[in-house]
Amino acid sequence: MSSEYSYWIEVFEEKSFKNNLLxxxxxxxxxxxxxxxxxxxxxxxxxxxxxxxxxxxxxVSDLRYETNQQKSYKNFQCIKPSxxxxxxxxxxxxxxxxxDFVKKYLKKNELLNEHTxxxxxxxxxxxxxxxxxxxxxxxxxxxxxxxxxxYFFFCSNDELKAKINYERVLRKIKKxxxxxxxxxxxxxQKWGYQFVYELMSKNPKYEILPILVYPIITKERVxxxxxxxxxxFKKLGIEAMDGYDYEKKVNVDIKSYSPDIVFxxxxxxxxxxxxxVEVSKSALTIxxxxxxxxxxxxxxxxxxxxxxxxxxxxxxxxSSYHNEFYKKAAGMRYKDNLYATGTPKLDYYKKxxxxxxxxxxxxxxxxxxxxxxxxxNNRGLAMSNFQExxxxxxxxxxxxxxxSFLLKPHPALKSSCISAGFMSESEFDSYLxxxxxxxNASVYTQGNYFDIxxxxxxxVTDCSSFIAEYFPSKKxxxxxxxxxxxxxxxFGKKLENGLYKVENPKELCSMVKKILDLNNDYLVTTRxxxxxxxxxLPEEGSSKIIVEYLDGIFVNxx
Length: 558
Hints:
With about 550 residues, the protein is α/β, with parallel strands linked by helices.
């Protein structure tokens, strides 16, 4: 049972949600309905109430049914979104706490007949009078009437509640001799706080708690990664602790560790008590992007992600351009929690290479990284070419022993292959093993991969963030392009000018030969110009800028 599931069960009890259903029942008498969005909210709803007692249910629909061929869910017939128009239904009931986004999606893609109406099962209150009272409370605490008025107009109730909480928490923390700092991590492959962690550890003002590692539990993916993550941090000389309660089958509440500051990695996995709005009651919340944003804002993040970003106490972005991007994409304009510092991950380029990463490369040939993305289905990001290239790349490595290869799969690729029915777990593991047994190839699935970047000669990928992260290496990049992939944003389009694009294996073979054998890297000057003009790489390092910002509040108290 996830913390998000428990949260919704509590919401249904506290709000006497049965009354909401009875009102809907009266309105929808003798009407045929389909429940759209079959996530954790829907699971909690169906477990709390027998929906057949309230409605004439034709079936349930969710985007994932387009590809997984599922016939039934929770004893309801599964209907593909593309088949909704064929159904005789009067209403689509959206089972999402953020139904507006779903409503726009259904209408934009013309998935419903003209007579079919859309209603939310639940919509979080954004009552203006309540928000006015919250703004008055904020003004009373801060004596800042301008900010109170601004937040009244531009913040949701939850965001404004978090603002009030942060003001109270901040005043308490400033009085403390020791400030407890907690870093949260679900995937060590995305660990980007290393140098922030090290700098804060050197300051006696901060008491760094063991890193809290959680599993990843979503509808599409269940990965208990804690043991692997703890071992990863152990090799770095960092203590970590498992944050999962195996008896209760929930993530342990962050507040039980009594932190004053919480650094999140991917807080959208942590709903309920561990959501930033809830944690704001006792701690300040901070996030730095684990990746490097290059995608168009329409494909960038869900409503849940946007809600998280705007509820944080502090969000440190990649650059001033990205500040503007997040203001629009995540709705962070006027929220006063966004700061351009650069990303600490790129500080690795300022460090000396750890010799152990040199040992990962087999053979003496020029070095090629292949980094496949996880989005193998033709929906959502749809960037991955893994299905088309996986066996070709393996054969290519076998037949080109003059090169040294390193396979760096996205951490979600395995679960994507399994959920799509492309590979089973054992087939995927066997595939990686076959790579690792080659005399000229290795597989690397851990984090802290920048020394691999620095020791390579070429990156072959269909990812987005990796492109930006690899750019400071000044090495060439081949993009395995496809027409369905999510488009780049303005920043990504600038990077695109420095990429070698190929659309099939034949073009890839030709491009690899041209770059590595003929030394014809004709985009090198273009890449260097893009690096100089588009990237924010502060001389002192982004980690130092971030820690100095926090020191100014808690240590120097200026």
